[in-house]
Fold this protein.
Amino acid sequence: MKTESILEVNSLSCGFRDPDTKEVVNVLRDVSFDLPRQKILGIVGESGCGKSVTMHTVMRLLPKTAVITAGEVRFEGKDLLTLNLDEMNQYRGREIAMIFQEPMTSLNPVYKIGDQIAEMLMLHQNIGRRDALDEAVKKLELVSIPAPQKIIDQYPHELSGGMRQRVMIAIAMACNPKILIADEPTTALDVTIQAQILDLMKELKEKLHSSIILITHDLGVVAEMCDDVVVMYAGDVAEKADVVSLFKEPKHPYTVGLMKSLPTLNTMDERLYNIVGTVPCPADFPAGCRFAPRCEFADERCHQSRPPLVRVGENHEVACWLAAS
């Protein structure tokens, strides 16, 4: 039986308005996926594929130049795109929280760690500063930070990268949100600290019964952490499947290329595979399949017509004319 979804993104399209021409440059095109309760969904792809923009759209954190042209973002049945700013603020932090890519730029450098955690608690739980600071200590203990009573009186620059990332997780989990969105949570951390942060996220998921969306370009992290995977390319969903199906039998040429580019013990003396070319600028997205200019299997139909997402397995969909035929 399929697990109930806590978040449903349906046919989401988004662009940015050019300040000079006033034209909307399309970035996301008909993005759809579900997040089952208490599961981890991985969203993967190269830089510039629309992963972070998708999550900023879910959180309604887009700049003023952004235009959402179509779609729904349903959290427990409620379309978040229909809410005004005050209503959306009731969901941010309390129901859905986000860990951003770089904690040094996400944490306020002039406020102490304790005050930054306490602010979230005072905003959403209507408690005083002293009680909020006491609770902040407990949140730091939850993310395994040693000497939390000392840490709450320190500033971000006094902490290591791994400690700052743990503080970011403590802030995000302060109000026990039902969904945690982690945008490249292990960027710029060494391998040992990366493993600790990922283990911490899995542990918190079990303790707090939350669901996680993990944005990453690291397929090793996806294999270790995720239950389901969405592969994005140039603002499109190229493929989505449960993690076992995706790694066992990837269908889209882009997914296959990502898999082949992974180093293994058997390729130590060989040149790593690379996908020719780069992700195009949104203003230059091609017609048809957006991956076609880089695809070694593309034919005329691929360049002219956009392939629909079609089911190729029990929990496996792909947007490719060749893979689906």
Remarks:
- The first strand starts at residue 5 and ends at 17.
- The chain has a mean pLDDT of 91.
